[in-house]
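Why run this: before we spend reagent on co-expression, it is cheaper to look at a predicted model of the complex and decide which construct boundaries make sense. The entries below are exactly what would go into the expression plan.
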Amino acid sequence: MIVHVGSVLYSYTGDRPSVEAKGTTLGAVIDDLERRFPGLRFRIVDEQDQVRQHMNVFVGGRPTRDLKARVKADEEIHILQALSGG
Amino acid sequence: MPKKQASLLIGTIKGGFVLDAGPGRRSWKIRGPFQFGQVVNDFRLDPRDGRTLLLSATGGHLGPTIYRSTNRGRTWTEAKRPPKYGKGRKAARGEQKDTRGLAVESCFWLGPGHVDEPGVWYVGTAPSGMFRSTDGGLSWRPVKGWNEGKSWGKWNLGGNNVTPGGAIQHSIEIDPRDRKHMYTSLSVGGTFESFDQGKSWAPLNRGVAKIFPGGSPDYGHDPHCMIIHPADPDVLYQQNHCGFYRMQRDATEEWARVGRKMPKKIGDIGFPVVGHPTDADTVWTFPMDGTQKWPRTSVDGKPAVYKTENGGRSWQRKDKGLPRKNGWYTVLRQAMCADDDQRRTGVYFGTTGGDVWASRDGADSWNRIAEGLPRVFSVRHAVFR
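The model came back. Tokens follow.
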């Protein structure tokens, strides 16, 4: 499936806004991304396996913070940063 | 670039900058920003190799990490294993027994290890925790004696953990004579000492005033910055929320409030304390307004560094060249330092308004060497080799 990432993650994806990944759950997809782009997972998920507070994840357009959320092969995932502060 | 280069490493809310000194420290050239857009609470050069730069970064969205450069900042590598607490259950506030179950929110304080342990670094974090690297900052492991020690929950009184305020771990100081003898301080917790390289800790807070009444006399204090004096490892100083203190560690376990000798109108409230390179009786600090609503800016808008040359028995005001009015400066705990010139010591500080000031004569006179930077969190002197 295609995973679209926010610009704050481009330094991990080689400046690519969209990358390919495999997995049947959100957690598996992020683990697959980590294999290809080391360090990326910890920027999205903290050491307690919680999606970081200011990261927003959408699976097939549905917001979720559940790493066990099922992902269909034809769905797109968006991993985006919240924007706040000055 | 010259082979040996004296510089200031500036950590700001939007990234790191380097100010390279020209001949005689008369001019400064700025480089950066590095890791632009990230909150840089600390930025240091390894004094042992004069080559390895570490920069603590917290993205607003991405959580904390540490970057490393060995070519004066031209290229950077992110830590392969950034500081991470152990797995566990996050408990309700006031019930948290140790750091297991928490997530590191900020890498706040960077400290190089002992001179005989090249590649060893420490970092203090928020929520309160300590990590150690043995490979020059590439991978970090918890100092379990602190993070998972039996007293963590008792000593850590909480706070909002929003750096640079809140319950944060800082001032990780190593005795230059004994790598196992360490100190660390915790805002809203106190100063603690270890004789076994961090396996076990004991409070070292007797004599220090407290913010809140009651509780234990041994912990619950609020040190802002604590140093082993570079000229004498038995002499400790701390700038506390509740005053400025000195301890002759080989003679006592009691802090003495030497800040009482500062002018009453100025008070002894502030964040940083900086030691002279060769004179243990000489330190500088930057007192701020600690009255009523605690604005913590220069008293009356007239910024001044205060210096003692006799261990705090008397203090000198040092404000030549600084604004005479409307200088509402706040200088945070890592944002003041000195260089190693024994006779004409360079003293430096950065403000939350984005200015950096320098003195080439031990604080006798001041020049602004940078302005318009983002909010300054740290100013560290460095000599690249």
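Chain B has a mean pLDDT of 94. Chain B touches chain A at residues 59-63, 65, 78, 80, 82, 84-88, 90, 101-104 (CB under 8 Å). Bring this page to Monday's planning discussion.
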